[in-house]
Amino acid sequence: MTQETSGNALACIGETHGYLFDGDSVQINAELNFSDAALGAASQWALQLWSSVSGFPDQQLAGVKVAELAVYPAAGYQSLAATVAATPPAGSDEQNVALALVFWDENGQPTVADMAVYPLAESFVQPKLAGNLSVGLADGLATIKVDAIENPRAEDNLSGTLALELWALDAPYAGGSWQGIPVASVILGVLGGGNSLIDSHFVVPAAAPEGPGVLTLMLREWGPLGYVTRDYCNLSLEAPAKAKPKAAAKKAIAKEEAPKAKSETKPAADKVKKTKSADKAPAKAKAAAIKGIAINAASEAELLAIKGLTATVAKAIVAGRPYAALNELGKVKGVGPKLLATLRDKVVL
Q: Which CATH architecture has domain 2-117?
């Protein structure tokens, strides 16, 4: 089940290891074995849980990182078990899951020391979009129609607050973090387990994204880490909307908060072809960019957009996730008081 992928014999995952999800948390356990050389080769180690629809060819990381557990190595045998925050992948596709033992060298480059790929695919039970859906953009409004929004969890499992968010993207959304223009959003409220919202029809203020491109309608749920994407559908954006807002929208990096938006039921013509839908957006007529980079979701490349942040520090920030408060960034190697102050202005949880 395990295979050394980095070409070194520094450390390996033992025969006993596993994981157990409980909502937005996961218990990770593993037996690890570190060589004497491992103690001097790297100061930072972690166990990472990854999910991927396409699997892990050649034992390489792929897909979305779901959770991470810091590891403090000691020479010889070591057994770990802990519960950490998790971000299950969006959508209803079955996911291949792998546990990776990762370390970072002195230059901040991550390396996989060993990986265990689990033989059984994982299915995540979470709120989802069902049936047909359509989105129309006209005269500064978005008309969103969904056959059903379902909570397939147990009857006693009430969802967190649900929201529909519409984003304009350059490429189809496939999970994880994203960049794009927020178009519209509506708060749905909570939904009991085993219940559905049938024939939902919302008309809300919307920005006017330029086409061609992709509209992504996302179903998001409030949880311990803020709003997280539970399901999505990508739609084709064929042409610019008729009415442009006065202020042009800037591309924004999604943060884990949902805008507050009121919904009403008005008829409007559908202007977008359905192929599958999509993500988050504020419900204001002006296309205002979301402020702040989601520190718990952004990629290293997105973090490097912050002035004064080096590649080494960006990697260290990613390795130390998740963060419960922005002040915790001050514990990251390379983040001094000045950079911490900059990060407080530029990022969100």
A: Sandwich (2.60)
**Can you tell me which residue has the tokens 């390795």?**
319
User: What is the Cα gyration radius of the chain?
Assistant: 21
Rounded-to-integer distance, Cα 264 and Cα 253, Å: 28
Region of residue 242 (phi > 0: left; psi between -120 and 50: alpha; otherwise: beta): alpha
Nearest Cα to Cα of residue 77 among 29, 30, 19: 30
Buried b (16+ CB within 10 A) or exposed e, 221-249: bbbebbbbbbbbbbbebeeebeeebeeeb
* Backbone phi, psi, residue 29, to 5°: -135, 145
Residue ranges of the chain that CATH labels 1.10.150.320: 294-348
Looking at the chain, the domain(s) classified CATH 2.60.40 span: 2-117
Ordered per-residue pLDDT tens for the chain, 349 residues:
333 333 456 899 999 999 999 989 999 999 999 998 888 778 789 999 999 999 998 888 889 999 999 999 888 999 999 999 999 999 989 999 999 999 987 777 888 999 999 999 999 999 999 999 999 999 999 999 999 999 999 999 999 999 999 999 988 998 888 889 999 999 999 999 999 999 999 999 999 887 778 999 999 999 988 999 999 999 977 644 444 444 444 444 454 444 444 444 343 333 443 434 334 333 333 333 334 677 777 777 778 778 778 878 888 888 887 777 787 888 888 888 788 888 877 887 7
The domain defined by 294-348 folds into DNA polymerase; domain 1 (1.10.150)
What is the CB-side half-sphere exposure of residue 212 using CA atoms within 13 A? Answer: 5
Q: Give the predicted TM-score (pTM) of the model.
A: 0.63
Q: Per DSSP, what are the bridge partners of residue 274?
A: 235
